[in-house]
Design a protein that fits this description.
The complex is a heterotrimer.
Chain A lengths: L3 H18 L13 E8 L6 H12 L3 E8 L4 H11 L5 E4 L5 H6 L7 H5 L11 E2 L2 E2 L2 E5 L2 E6 H6 L11 H17 L5 E4 L5 H10 L14 H12 L6 H6 L4 H6 L3 E7 L2 H11 L7 E4 L16 E3 L2 E6 L8 H11 L2 H8 L10 H8 L8 H8 L2 E3 L8 H16 L5 H17 L2
Parallel strand pairs in A: 1-2, 8-9, 11-13
Antiparallel strand pairs in A: 3-12, 4-5, 6-12, 7-9, 7-10
Chain B lengths: L1 H4 L3 H40 L2 E4 L1 E6 L3 H7 L2 H32 L6 H13 L2 H11 L6 H8 L15 H25 L4 H9 L4 H12 L1 H16 L3 H6 L11 H11 L3 H31 L1
Antiparallel strand pairs in B: 1-2
Helix pairs in contact in B: 4-8, 4-11, 5-8, 8-11, 11-14, 13-14
Chain C lengths: L22 H36 L3 H4 L14 H9 L2 H32 L5 H12 L3 H14 L6 H9 L2 H11 L4 H9 L4 H12 L1 H17 L2 H6 L8 H11 L4 H22 L7 H4 L4
Classes of the chains: A alpha/beta, B mainly alpha, C mainly alpha.
Chain lengths: ~425, ~300, ~300
């Protein structure tokens, strides 16, 4: 028995590791034959974008069928990593955000798609997907963070509507004014709602502060952003982090049910809000979009370009795809990042990666979308900086900063103490590993 | 085993042979599935812990590098400390509650079926619902728990899941509440193995209820208690889903536990080699504590 | 443990006082009994509070689920949620898959687990303790750490994205073996010895003596395995992709991520997922107290 144990260990290990290594086959290439490529998506019944893209592509490529494979929205990356590791992943898969692009690319799980990338022309969101001059994925969505505001509640509180020239201090002052005005009018709504995600403070701080660098290990730039948030929740101008967390407040209900007059959120919320108005899960009220508040006056006003943040959503090709399907998959990628797909996506309220005037017009022609000039400006004009700059350290740093976020926002730690700790942890646990 | 050793040689080897065949034929149906589907991947883990592996492609052998890194990793130590904190609080509380419930419900009283079901309900209720409800109950400003505390004169009640000091006790309370019905069930089954006439004999001897509990129930329950302690220990060291749905390790790192750290390093940061190394340490702790429990148990039994 | 007479008649499994207690004691015991009931009722209220909240939320409109302060009784009961969820989700498929899996896994686990446990508890052969240690050892390893190697293995066996993956995952666990071994060890060795003298084979002893004597333990194992499989979320999440394979927990989570703000419906689904298990428990709990004590063999 004593000899049998190491033997069993070796056999078991060899079995597991050997089985992991095999697989992969070649097929003859025939460009005109009917092809089926599989595409990973999530929550298919409530996320129409995948079907929109598949149908749109079939209109110009009748011999290619795009078959959708459903994944769990909340655990998409976990499931995808497992499938890629086991070699059972679909031919084309979505990169939900930039955070995991490094993992997939450096792990050799993305095919070089420079062919598809080269036909796209100038597309700012393409740059993060390029490594050493080669393109590994193409963007089809580019959301950015804007300020949603409830015009009705502004009127109730007798506060003038935003004009697109706010700094964060203006925003904070306005949130307090709104809260006081709403209270005077007998409403329980708060001036603002800050969702519990770390992005709500850190995304803006990173994008807007001059010289801020996620990978520098210096997080002093977060300080003014957190001071304002803490001040707003202490003043009662927004629900506290604790209440939002323990009562599972959703930003959709908070803004859609008119519990808060202002909400900072990504442009994906446009489609959600429209759907919820139709289904009755959101009230019907006048709303608008304004640019996100700015770090200082240099980028405020409609004559300047406001700075905000957001990660593109991309698509890449699984290297285990059979060779005969590669041209079809590349053509599909070129389509999803192109003008036609952009219009199709805008038609269902999604913000495509390509921000051209006709695409913006398509979105603003939808029923229920505000048509004032500021909303169009906020939606179409901005400089978007990535929330997750591509690097092997990004996820590690973001985890450290997530701990900072919950510690600071729950008042468990003082801001200075939390920043010092995060810097120490970033250096010892992430940047030097 | 002592009995078999003293038998004469030829008979012994035949007996050993026969017993081996018999033993393996009983174990084999389960062992085939177990060895292939669980033991093999677990063994692979012992190799992966010494590599740098990002799930994809080949694992690169790095020797003890992962373990050296762990030694200097403050978050690992925080997670270990929190895990011990949870374990030390959770085990006695759950044992006491589960045994108390089992004793109460091991009688013929009206509605015992309903009561037993009620006690088991927390365990079968969806963990999402549990997290939602308890978070609301614990809500510092509006929650009923703090409303009650304020009513009885506590001026500044704790912030529970939103406070770094109270988040772990809050999780322990929910963990105990959730699991006591499960262990109650095992204790109920264990109480059934204690012969009734032992109680009757004790009664005739004039033993009080406490004496009967101390000298009949406790010894009679020993195999069950042992099982419960081992499962509770391992379960507490491995606590994961409850933390994930209730606090996600926060605020800050106040409820970060080892299992969650493993998940974070593995599935969020894709450092599966390092995650495997942390798992090995967690395994070693669980296994060490369990082995000590086995040893104590065996010594008691052989006394 | 000491040997216990095998011929003593069975006694009811209660700790009640004698049939005709002295008058003074009756008052005292009545007082105790009442106090016990009060304690029990209080405990039950605490235990069931979240479940009560779940049921009440499932009967509210969505916007009423989260209110500050908590609304314990809804203004109007919205029964429509229970109709809606059947229309908007594949509840029937989810329930069918989960039931199928739970029954299959429980059957396999109880059968092979109790069988193996007998080998570990009663037959002495070289390497037994080491082998048992390997079983216990795997319990001590967190699943998420060997999930990926296991997933790769299962995929190569073409089991992933089939219901068999979950059966394979759950049915041969060490838990059942450990639990049953502990219970077998409480059964006096003398019973098996005398049966061996009577010429019963090892299998015969397992069938005729051990299985009947371990009924409460078997009932516990059955119930716990069933509930664990029923409530398992991470296993199905990793292994099942096709919508027609979804289990109830997986289905509910997908439902949540699809309709992330619809807590009333989510709670409706949760109530529906708990009910079948609750019913099975209510029916089965009788068996925990009808074991050894009433068979007369042991007690």
């Amino acid at each position: 028995m004593t000899r049998a144990i190491p033997g069993a260990v070796c056999t078991a290990m060899a079995l597991t590791l050997l089985l992991a290594g095999c697989g992969g086959e070649d097929e003859p290439v025939d460009p005109n034959a009917p092809v089926t490529i599989t595409l990973a998506g999530w929550s298919l019944s409530s996320t129409p974008e995948f079907k929109t893209l598949a149908d749109g592509f079939r209109a110009t490529h009748p011999n290619v069928t795009v078959e959708l494979k459903e994944y769990d929205a909340a655990n998409y990356d976990t499931q995808m990593i497992a499938d890629l590791a086991a070699g059972t992943a679909p031919d084309v898969y979505v990169l939900k955000n930039l955070k995991n692009f490094y993992t997939y690319q450096s792990g050799g799980q993305l095919l070089d798609v420079s062919d598809a990338g080269s036909v796209l022309g100038a597309l700012p969101a393409l740059a993060p997907y390029q490594v050493d001059g080669k393109t590994y994925a193409v963007p089809y969505r580019q959301d950015s963070w804007v300020l949603y505001y409830n015009k009705d509640l502004f009127d109730t509180a007798k506060v003038p509507h935003p004009t697109g020239d706010w700094t964060w201090d203006d925003y904070a002052a306005m949130a307090k004014r709104l809260t006081a005005g709403l209270k005077a009018a007998g409403s329980t709504a708060t001036g603002a709602y800050q969702h519990v995600w770390q992005s709500t403070a850190q995304g803006f701080a990173l994008a807007q502060t001059p010289g801020a660098d996620l990978l520098s290990g210096d997080y002093a730039y977060l300080k003014p952003y957190y001071q304002r948030s803490l001040d707003l929740q202490a003043a009662g101008a927004q629900p506290t982090f604790g209440t939002a967390n323990t009562n599972k407040l959703t930003y959709q209900a908070q803004f859609g049910k008119q519990q808060s007059a202002m909400l900072l959120m990504g442009t994906w919320y446009v489609a959600t809000l429209l759907n919820q108005r139709t289904s009755g899960d959101a009230d019907t009220f006048e709303w608008g979009i304004a640019p996100a508040p700015q770090h200082d006056r240099s980028t405020t006003g409609t004559s300047a370009t406001p700075v905000t943040f957001g990660d593109p959503t991309g698509m890449g090709i699984n290297p285990k795809i059979s060779k005969s399907k590669v041209p079809a998959a590349q053509a599909f990628l070129a389509y999803v990042a192109g003008e036609d797909a952009g219009k199709a996506l805008a038609g269902i309220g999604i913000t495509p990666a390509r921000a051209t005037a006709p695409i913006t017009e398509t979105l603003f022609a939808l029923d229920g979308v505000p048509d004032d000039a500021l909303s169009k400006f906020a939606y179409g004009t901005h400089e978007i900086r990535p929330e997750n700059p591509v690097s092997r350290h990004t996820t590690g740093i973001q985890n450290v900063l997530a701990d900072l976020h919950s510690a600071v926002m729950s008042d468990s730690k003082s801001l200075d103490e939390a920043i010092t700790e995060a810097q120490a942890r970033a250096r010892s646990e992430v940047l030097t590993q | 085993m002592a009995a078999t050793l003293t038998r004469p040689r030829p008979g012994r080897s035949r007996l050993v042979w026969r017993n081996t065949i018999a033993g393996w034929s009983f174990i084999l149906p389960n062992f085939v599935g177990f060895a292939l589907l669980t033991l093999a991947p677990v063994m692979a883990l012992f190799y992966l812990a010494f590599t740098n592996w990002n799930v994809f492609g080949v694992a690169e052998w790095t020797g003890l590098a992962n373990f050296r890194r762990m030694w200097g990793d403050a978050s690992f130590w925080t997670a270990l400390r929190n895990t011990l904190y949870y374990t030390v609080l959770h085990i006695p509380l759950t044992m006491a509650a589960a045994l108390g419930l089992a004793l109460l419900l091991n009688r013929r009283i009206r509605g015992v079926g309903f009561f037993r079901t009620a006690a088991f309900f927390p365990y079968i209720t969806s963990i999402v619902a549990i997290a939602v409800v308890w978070n609301q109950l614990f809500s510092p400003e509006y929650g009923p728990v703090n409303a009650f505390l304020r009513a009885v004169g506590v001026h500044s009640p704790p912030g529970w899941t939103t406070s770094a000091d109270w988040s772990m006790p809050a999780v322990v309370i929910v963990g105990t509440w959730r699991e006591m019905g499960y262990y109650m069930l095992l204790f109920l089954a264990g109480l059934q193995t204690i012969p009734t006439q032992l109680y009757e004999a004790a009664k005739i001897d004039g033993a009080t209820a406490w004496q009967r509990f101390r000298h009949v129930t406790i010894p009679g329950l020993r195999p069950t208690t042992f099982f419960v302690v081992v499962m509770l220990t391992i379960g507490s060291f491995k606590v994961f889903d409850l933390i994930l749905v209730m606090t996600e390790g926060g605020p800050g790192q106040s409820t970060l536990v080892l299992s969650q750290y493993i998940y974070q390093k593995g599935f969020v940061e894709n450092q599966f080699g390092y995650a495997s190394a942390v798992s090995i340490v967690l395994f070693a702790i669980c296994f060490g504590v369990t082995a000590v429990q086995f040893w104590i148990n065996n010594r008691r039994e052989n006394r | 443990m000491t040997t216990i007479g095998l011929t003593t008649p069975a006694a009811p499994a209660t700790m009640d006082g004698p049939a005709t207690p002295a008058p003074g004691r009756r008052v005292a015991s009545r007082g105790w009994r009442a106090a016990g009931y009060v304690a029990l009722v209080l405990a039950v209220v605490a235990l069931l509070l979240p479940f009560y909240w779940m049921v009440m939320s499932s009967l509210k409109t969505n916007s009423d689920v989260f209110t500050v302060p908590i609304k314990w009784v809804p203004d109007t009961l919205v029964w429509r949620n229970y109709v809606d969820i059947w229309q908007r989700s594949d509840m029937t498929t989810w329930l069918r898959n989960t039931l199928l899996l739970s029954v299959l896994v429980t059957l396999l686990q109880v059968l092979t687990g109790s069988f193996a446990a007998y080998g570990f508890a009663r037959i002495r052969f070289p390497g037994r303790n080491l082998l048992f240690l390997a079983y216990i050892g795997t319990i001590a390893v967190p699943w998420q750490s060997y999930m990926i190697p296991q997933f790769i293995l299962m995929s190569k066996l073409h089991l992933s994205n089939t219901l068999w993956a979950i059966v394979a995952l759950q049915a041969f666990g060490a838990f059942g073996v450990f639990l049953m071994k502990q219970f077998y060890e409480t059964i006096p060795e003398e019973l098996s010895e005398s049966a061996r003298v009577d010429g019963l084979s090892e299998f015969g002893i397992y069938r005729r003596i051990m299985l009947p004597l371990s009924r409460p333990a078997l009932a516990s194992l059955t119930l716990l395995t069933f509930v664990t499989t029923w409530n398992d979320y991470l296993g199905p999440l990793i292994y099942l992709r096709s919508p027609e394979l979804r289990t109830i927990q997986l289905g509910l989570r997908t439902f949540i991520s699809q309709y992330n703000a619809e807590y009333a419906l989510i709670m409706t689904g949760s109530v529906l997922s708990v009910l079948p298990v609750a019913v099975i428990f209510l029916l089965g709990q009788r068996h925990f107290v009808e074991g050894i004590a009433t068979t007369g063999l042991k007690g």
